[in-house]
Amino acid sequence: MSVHKEIKKVTTNVLLEMKRKGEKISMLTAYDYTMAKIVDHAGVDVILVGDSASNVMAGHETTLPITLDQMIYHASSVVRAVDRALIVVDLPFGTYQGNSKEALNSSIKIMKESGGHAVKLEGGMEVTESIQRILTAGIPVMGHLGLTPQSIYKFGTYTVRAKEELEAKKLIEDAHALEKAGCFAIVLEKIPAKLAEQVAKELTIPVIGIGAGGGVDGQVLVFHDMVGLTHEFSPRFLRRYLNLYDDITEAVGKYIQDVKSKDFPNSNEQY
Ligand code: KIV
């Protein structure tokens, strides 16, 4: 029997066990109660309350504007829906980079006010002191390397990262530093598959990829992208399992037609 099927509640230890057994970890984003209920019921292992909510839910161009209180609002909605998955909450931009005390206070606020199970932050060696400090409060931390959207203005583009040897070497060093600092897992975003596979082999903690190939320990996608609710964003790594943008547009069109033609409501649809 796989670890996935046996487990009633996913913990960070369960994820480690999955890696040890070679069982891939499934992770998806969720930002609200209704979608989180579906995703958890379907059996996903990890739910990420990502700061991509800034783009997907609020329509911002980047992840930078979302606030700690807004992340807590999304996370607490998700927590109310979930029975089984491990819930990881992104520390938003500007709430942990200042110093390790700020990182600890932001993480405590998230855990206390949302009920999430762990936090995620972006960066390598420069955030290890913060990771260690957050861990002193018993809060599990997930790292995030490669394409780190909170640094978009430093890099200028959302293209594949660590293609050059120097950047690849730095990424490997950062990954080891995150493991040493105590992260229970890391996300690798949009880097060459070979490099991601090497990192997953070298680390004992799970490595979860998005646009990082199949040689890692698990995969994460933004829920709204994989069900096709968003339609302008089509990177190579994205597999769309549904086309909800088109389906919903068609349904709304039919509803408008039915209202205008007085077909809705019919005699059975009223009191
Ligand atoms: O915020 C997010 O959705 C993420 C994933 C892309 C990993 O960080």
Largest sheet: 8 strands, parallel, barrel
CATH topology of the largest domain: TIM Barrel
The CATH superfamily name of the largest domain is Phosphoenolpyruvate-binding domains
Order of helices and strands: HHEHEHHEHEHEHHEHEEHH
| Rg measurement, Å | 20 Å
Measured by DSSP, the beta-strand proportion falls in: 5-15%
Task: Describe what this molecule looks like in 3D.
The protein has 271 residues and is an alpha/beta fold. It has 2 domains: 3-240, Alpha-Beta Barrel (TIM Barrel); 245-271. Helix 3 crosses helix 5, helix 5 (68-81) runs parallel beside helix 6 and helix 9 packs parallel to helix 10. The longest helix has 17 residues, at 165-181. Strands 1-2-3-4-5-6-7-8 form an 8-stranded parallel barrel, surrounded by 7 helices. The chain is globular and about 65 Å long. It is built from 12 helices and 8 strands. Helix content is 44%, strand content 13%. The mean pLDDT is 97. The structure holds 3-methyl-2-oxobutanoic acid (KIV). 3-methyl-2-oxobutanoic acid is lined by residues 29, 48, 50-52, 90, 187, 189, 210, 220, 222.
List the main descriptive attributes of the protein structure presented here:
single chain, 271 residues, alpha/beta, TIM Barrel, 2 domains, eight-stranded parallel barrel, 8 strands, 44% helix, binds 3-methyl-2-oxobutanoic acid
